[in-house]
Amino acid sequence: MSRLPGLESSAGTGPDAALARLRALETLESGYEAWLELKLEHAAFRARIREERERLDQQGSFLLGAVRAAGLAPASKPDEPGLVAASAPAGDFLRDAEAKLATARESLAQREAEEEARYTAAFAEIRATLKDRAQRYLRASRPQLTLLLRRVGAERSILHLERLSGDTPVLLCFLLTGRIPSRHGFLLDDSTEDVALSPAPLYPDEGVAPEEVRPDAAGLEARVRGAGEVVPLKGFLPVFIPRPGGGEDFFRLLQRGAVLEVEVAEGTAFRNVLTREEAERFAGHLLRLKLQGSIDLELEAG
């Protein structure tokens, strides 16, 4: 099938180029770069589709207006769609124009469906590849964590983890949640779209609308628990800690300069000063991961 002008995939773009980048280098970061490349190209493709659809609509409206201006067709109601029946002198012209426009719209719809299927398959391959790489990396090398205890009185404390970098945040996200983050540098990203607001805990990815990136603690927990194979975290890592009587508490490791600070969800907010029992349960959870051989852990009391 011939492709519509302006919608051809040029060399070095589209799903094939992103997948070639993915397969060329066996690193997590290169996989995320390929994913970002594909997202940008997909957005550009959708924009081109919208522009072409608008162009066809404008073309139909212009042709109808020209015929009416020539006095060859009766005026239609303002809300009447498409081209209207014309008088005999313009009938053949209008029918031919309508047929050509209908063919162009069908061709555009078919092209859109074919390309969307290619993008869907490419996104699925990238996500599967990133999950596989995370699993292989975790088997080959355990994340190294240092937990720092800062006491606040006899029964309260603040817990910090030393700053993480490289692939470790992605690997920990996968280890702790079974999901991959939507971006490689998510944990150290302290950017904000509004300087009057603190950084949002979510990216506008994976079905999260721009106005939904700042849920309260309860909403954030629901979003993390309800995520599919990708979770759009920004600036923190979620940790679910079992309670002695059943259920789980929602903790998070929040990026704070040189450290990650442990916070626990309490209603709609988070609290960084932990009870002795909460701090011990959090440290015990990491210790279990160490004993399972999932992480390397050092505990330091300050």
Write the SSE topology.
Blueprint: H1 14-24, H2 28-69, H3 88-140, E1 144-151, E2 156-162, H4 168-177, E3 180-181, H5 217-225, E4 230-231, E5 236-242, E6 248-256, E7 259-266, E8 269-271, E9 274-275, H6 276-291, E10 296-301
Parallel strand pairs: 1-10, 3-4
Antiparallel strand pairs: 1-2, 2-7, 2-9, 5-6, 6-7, 7-8
Helix pairs in contact: 1-2, 1-3, 2-3, 3-4
What structural class do the secondary elements suggest?
Answer: alpha+beta
- The backbone outline, from C-alpha atoms, is elongated
Which range best describes the helical content: under 10%, 10-25%, 25-40%, 40-55%, 55-70% or over 70%? 40-55%
- Average predicted confidence as pLDDT: 87
Q: Per DSSP, what share of the residues sits in E-state strands of 2 or more residues?
A: 15-25%
Q: How many β strands by DSSP?
A: 10
Rounded Rg: 27 Å
What is the string of helix and strand elements? HHHEEHEHEEEEEEHE
Total helices: the number is 6
- How many distinct folded domains? 2
How many angstroms separate the termini?
70 Å
Give the oligomeric state. Answer: single chain
Residue runs with pLDDT of under 50 for 5 or more positions: 1-5, 80-84
Q: Main sheet?
A: 8 strands, mixed
